[in-house]
Design goal:
By secondary structure, this protein is mainly α. The protein is built from three helices and two strands; from the N terminus they run H-E-E-H-H. A two-stranded antiparallel sheet has the order 1-2. About 0% of the residues are buried.
Length: about 110
């Protein structure tokens, strides 16, 4: 419930701002990718300005997510190693428990005879 409320409180205003920016920036602009000849039509893109704003936002999110993912790689690796070690110790504990039950089971049969 709290997560849904936070999503509504954050995402709805962001969506409203993006819609307002899109409506306010519908004018066509040219993005020239050739710095030496801006008039070159081969390396230029003509689109509404909000398209470039959204592309910049998406590219920034992808780059930020990738940087975070790479930065946290050592923590994920450590978590994997510790999870494997925990499974190994649980397996060892189960094996020792079965061994102890087998020893105590054979000890009871000796004392009752």
């Amino acid at each position: 419930m709290a997560r849904k409320l936070i999503n509504i409180v954050i995402l709805v205003p962001v969506a409203i701002i993006l819609i307002v920016l899109s409506v306010a920036n519908r004018g066509a602009v040219t993005l020239a990718l050739n710095p030496f000849d801006p008039g070159d039509t081969v390396l230029s893109v003509n689109a509404p300005f909000f398209v470039f704003l959204f592309l910049a936002l998406m590219i920034g999110m992808v780059i930020g997510s990738a940087a975070t993912w790479f930065k946290q790689g050592k923590y994920r690796k450590k978590a994997r190693q510790e999870a494997k070690e925990a499974v190994r110790w649980h397996t060892e504990a189960d094996r020792q428990r079965e061994r102890a039950e087998a020893v105590s089971g054979s000890g009871n049969s000796l004392t009752s005879a």
